[in-house]
Amino acid sequence: MDSLTMLNPSSVAPSGPFSHGLVIPAGYDIIVTAGQIGTSDEQGTIPESYERQVSAAVDNLGRVLAEAGARPSDIIK
């Protein structure tokens, strides 16, 4: 692997020593994301309700994907 691109968008609160995502080049890009937490802003505010935390975690995943030029519809399982 020549180089890895760490994905840590400024719109998602830092998660300790971990990156929110990683792009692995090899002819095509594979984006590996970390587990996203339900923070709702850059300061790491955690919403009070479970529903808002889940929504924030999904939004954060979308932001990490966007940082690599991807969308949720690009996710495979």
TrEMBL record:
Secretion signal span: none
Domain of life: Eukaryota
Pfam families: Ribonuc_L-PSP
InterPro entries the UniProt entry points to: RutC-like_sf (IPR035959), YjgF/YER057c/UK114 (IPR006175)
CDD domains noted in UniProt: YjgF_YER057c_UK114_family
Name of the molecule in the record: RidA family protein
Source organism of this protein record: Knufia peltigerae
Lineage: Eukaryota, Fungi, Dikarya, Ascomycota, Pezizomycotina
